[in-house]
Amino acid sequence: MTGSLIKNHEAHFLPASDEIPPLKLDLANVTLYPAFGGYGILKKLADSDSKEYYKTLWSRSNEIPTWIGSCDYQQPFEDVLQAFSETKFGGARVTSGGQQALITLNDAVGLMRDGRLSARMSTDDVGSVPVPISKSEPIIDAVRKMVSRNVRRLFLEKGKGKFISDRTVIDFIFSPKSLEVARDQPELWLSEAVEKVDTKVPSRCETGSLDAAAKAMGPAPDDCLMTDEWRLISRWDLVVKPWRAGRLEALDN
Fold first, then answer.
1. CATH fold for domain 2-117
2. What H or E segment, with its residue span, contains residue 23?
3. Are strands 66-72 and 91-96 parallel, antiparallel or unpaired?
4. Of residues 199, 200, 208, the one with CA closest to residue 224
């Protein structure tokens, strides 16, 4: 059920209820709370035996939490950025008066787009080399590569810049047709070739300032940018890398 919710939800993860207790880190202002997301589901599948896939589908969500930071609405935005950095996850829980919501890297990029945050760095400083995948490889191999390399996107070899993501994989494997395969022939569920998964194309951005790159970033959770030098720019690159380097500044507007 969690996979189907993620498939049909705008976000790529959902905050959990209070059933699972939080974890307190030995860091000021950082407490971890559970969330359920596509990446956690893929990690569970990467470790599962193919004959047990259908059984794995019926695992309880509280067995596969993704731990995200939590902040009160009154805390400084700096604490949210610290939560992103410490958890290596682009989302945090924010609370007020017993209500909870999510804040994501996309929200931080929006602040850059609006001129309220500025990253004093270049795309050359933060870009990364895309991780390749053959379109003939089975989906489960792609899943394992994402998990082992800790990436959300794999770029098709000879694919003219096209990529699959944790999001597009979730969309495919939790489609009604694929779930029928999981039920009737579980060992074949994730054996389909990568080429069956929908692909996306990164938006192009010029080599230059991260502030300018932020304006080119699309709204979908797995959107990304590619420079003319074929360097991948994600929201993490736009926000967390400059923050860690002490180069992300709040602007007075």
1. CBS-domain (3.10.580)
2. strand 23-24
3. parallel
4. 200
Q: Are the CB atoms for 93 and 231 separated by under 8 Å?
A: no
User: What's the CA angle centered on 14, arms 108 and 74, to 5 degrees?
Assistant: 50
DSSP 114: T
CA distance 176 to 101: 29
Q: What values do phi and psi take at 105, rounded to 5?
A: -60, -30
Angle, helices 105-113 vs 77-87, to 10°: value is: 130
Which sequence spans correspond to the domains of the chain? 2-117, 123-250
Tell me: the pLDDT tens digits for 145-163?
999 999 999 999 987 899 9
What residue has token string 């209820």? 17
CATH number of 123-250: 3.10.580.10
Q: What is the pLDDT of residues 13-71, one digit of tens each?
A: 666 666 667 767 666 677 788 887 778 888 889 999 999 888 888 877 777 778 888 88
